[in-house]
Amino acid sequence: MQQDANAALKDRFAQVFGPGGKVHVVRAPGRVNLIGEHTDYNDGFVFPMAIEPEVRIACRTRTDGKVRLGSTVFPNELVEFSLQNKIERGKPTWGNYSRGVAAEMIAAGIPLSGMDALLTNTLPVGGGLSSSAAVEVATGTAFLALAGLKLDQTRLALLCQKAEHDYAGVPSGIMDQTIVASGKPGTAMLLDCRDNSKRFIPIDANELRVVIVNSMVKHELSGGEYAQRRRQCEEGVHVLKQDHPQVRALRDVTMQQVEAAKGKMSEVVYRRCRHVVGENERTVEAAKKLEDRRYEDVGKLMVQSHNSLRDDYEVSCPELDFLVEQAMTVKGVYGARMTGGGFGGCIVALTQPRAVEGLTDHLHQTYTAQFGRQPSVFVTTATGGASVIE
Ligand code: GLA
């Protein structure tokens, strides 16, 4: 199956860029976050896993320092730039993720060669499953494969995050690039975003299913809401620091301290802080409960997370709220919540294996009746992080 997909991708590559030479294939998965939302840029905890939908790149080295990128998603467009000149953002904009990665790798002193590359993507673009991080990490992996170099995955993730900031204009945290680069099959990753330490916790495939439901509302993080949330968290830290000088980020704050500082900050900033501090606690606890196979407890924490994102952090939308509410009426569903940055995209549900069919049918029926469009529902196992396939 995988062989066929690679052969088809290489055929397309030869059609776009011509035959001959050694063509490598690399992949980088998408991700779903089980819990721990909007905590990463607060030095907190997240609990994502790498998923089956992915970005694949067929690539071949060029000796003239040029990079040419095609995409099966945008078959009539070609991105072109030279590694020898300053790399600027440009059109088509989907190329900015790769432009950014090339620029950051060069700035970090990594010697790259030019390449022709064809991208293919089974992740929904704008679906909140980190298709952008997958493109970034896959691009980095392709450059490294052609240069015959290896790079620590955490370092690669940091370079890709920088590309996201500087070339895609989203001041994202480190969660997406880290899990995409460093996921381990069959596990979710409890990541401490302060020091990048990771604990991998198994997801027992005999007992659990991870179901992703795409609301088909496109999420958009470069629109300013994401950056605004970050600023509000910083404002909270600024206030909390006055009484607690040791506080560097919301990660260092307790709920008691937030409550005590309530009168000193705006009501909105207070609610943002309350979400982040509560979400950090929920994330650490959920990882522990998953490890202990206390699935009902994990599920409850997921629903609390959703409610907090809806009411305190205000990054949900009616479609996501509806999907979570409906999912929770189905027998055998432990928990459900919006996942990723928000404002559209997907929910994630943790269920018993036998609940999947009923959940899928129920969501198709109720969501379509309510919003006049079909959600996309799929089950995924946890896969490994980015790799060179051939
Ligand atoms: C986006 C960002 C991540 C993280 C999530 C919210 O996916 O890229 O860094 O902040 O939103 O948890």
Shape: globular
Beta content comes to 15-25%
Helix-and-strand structural type: alpha+beta
Strand order of the largest sheet: 5-4-6-3-1-13
Small molecules held by this entry: alpha-D-galactopyranose
| Largest beta-sheet characterization | 6 strands, mixed
What string gives the helices and strands in order? HEEEEEHEHHHEEEHHHHHEEHEE
Average pLDDT figure: 97
Low-confidence stretches: none
- Count of distinct strands: 13
Query: N- to C-terminal separation?
Result: 15 Å
Radius of gyration, whole Å? 21 Å
Short description:
41% of the residues lie in helices and 22% in strands. The protein is of the alpha+beta class and 390 residues long. A 6-stranded mixed sheet has the order 5-4-6-3-1-13, with helices on both faces.
Describe this entry's structure for a reader.
The mean pLDDT is 97. The radius of gyration is 21 Å and the shape is globular. The protein has helices at residues 2-17, 96-107, 131-147, 153-167, 175-182, 225-243, 255-260, 267-291, 295-311, 318-327, 356-371, and strands at residues 24-33, 45-46, 48-62, 66-71, 78-82, 114-121, 187-192, 197-202, 209-214, 333-339, 346-351, 376-380, 387-388. The two termini are 15 Å apart. Helix 3 crosses helix 4 and helix 6 crosses helix 8. It is built from eleven helices and 13 strands. The chain has a six-stranded mixed sheet, with helices on both faces. By secondary structure, the chain is of the alpha+beta class. It binds alpha-D-galactopyranose. Alpha-D-galactopyranose binds at residues 37-38, 40-41, 172-173, 175-176, 340-341. The site of alpha-D-galactopyranose has 10 residues, from helix 5.
